Amino acid sequence: MTPLVVGIMYPPRWDARPRERFDADLDALRALDPRVEIVDCRYIEDNALRTERGRPGSATDASLRARAPELTPEQRTALARIEVALVADLPFDVADLAPNLRWVQSVAAGNGQLLSAGLPTGRITATTAAGVNGVPIAEFAFARLLAHAKRHRELDERQRDHDWQAVFGAVLSGRTLGLVGVGGIGSEIAKRAQAFGMTVYATRRRVDRPAPHVDRLFHPDDLHTMLAGCDAVVSAAPETPETVDTMDAAAFAAMRPGAFYCNVGRGSFVVEKDLVEALESGHLGAAALDVARSEPLPPEDPLWDAPNLYLSAHCSSDGRDHFTGVFRLFRDNLARYLAGEPLRNAVDPAAGY
């Protein structure tokens, strides 16, 4: 019996759950078929390298290749055997290192850094964890929007100063929310916005296909038209060459005066200098970033001191139960793979997501 070798390539320490739950998930994979053999094949890169590898053109960047971790003999031996991999990162030229590799399942919704590893179209299928964190990230984005609308930061300052002064916030009902991208995360944000009585706009390439909880769709070419009609905007699209620098000075200028902007997608969407200027001028009422172009964000970066900016360190997902959802998806996809059925969340190489 020829084994189907599955490589676990992300570090188990990322999994915040008790170890026995991780072990139970591995046992559930083995229970799918007696051929399933699981090997420890962990490979991890630092945050800065992962971010840079997610950008267009990174596959041929010699400076990035020089920063990649050197593979140990044990890693090379494991890579040479695996057919399926559960990954956060992949080494460059993985197709040569892993000649039997046929499918890569990402533990994250993003896949740019994986595509830069060199995945031959037609030989290796990549799937993402899109949708696994839709609910927690939508809750996070909406929490930021609510905190701004209800002026929670000012309320906290009043409490800190023992100052009994009323601070009245705005009502979201009747306002308009724009979504740059309406996939797994955007659709969950739209659902919550509608529940609060907001009108929801969104950009999507296929405007002829209705999106649940979205009142009006715009083609990405009409982004600025959408922005002009929104009181708040959330970016939650995948990173592609077309989405890089989407939110620049012209985009912020197109937004309504005093509008709110939130990015829970990728740092490359935003021209950060332009965002800071829009906040400093007062044209943009406030912004929230859970991602940045450079992660971790350098201490001297101007974003730290930009007025009315809410910053967080790429933590809008659910750190506690994220891998419960990942393994649920991976187990379902592995069952599909064994049965020769189409995999969920397969990446379209032409679209980049």
Topology of helices and strands:
Blueprint: E1 4-8, H1 19-30, E2 36-40, H2 47-53, H3 62-67, H4 73-79, E3 84-87, H5 94-97, E4 103-106, H6 112-115, E5 125-127, H7 134-149, H8 152-160, E6 176-180, H9 184-195, E7 199-203, E8 216-218, H10 223-228, E9 232-235, H11 249-254, E10 259-263, H12 272-281, E11 284-289, E12 309-311, H13 322-339
Parallel strand pairs: 1-2, 1-3, 3-4, 4-5, 6-7, 6-9, 7-8, 9-10, 10-11, 11-12
Helix pairs in contact: 1-13, 7-9
Query: What's the β-strand tally?
Result: 12
- What's the CATH architecture name of the largest domain? 3-Layer(aba) Sandwich
The oligomeric state of the chains shown is single chain
Structural class: alpha/beta
What is the name of the CATH superfamily of the largest domain?
Answer: NAD(P)-binding Rossmann-like Domain
Largest sheet: 7 strands, parallel
CATH topology of the largest domain: Rossmann fold
- Tally of separate helices: 13
Radius of gyration computed on alpha carbons:
22 Å
Hey, roughly how much beta strand do the residues contain?
5-15%
- The top-level CATH class of the largest domain is Alpha Beta
Mean pLDDT: 94
| Percent of residues in helices | 25-40%
What is the rounded distance between the termini? 35 Å
Strand order of the largest sheet: 8-7-6-9-10-11-12
Output the helix-strand order. Answer: EHEHHHEHEHEHHEHEEHEHEHEEH
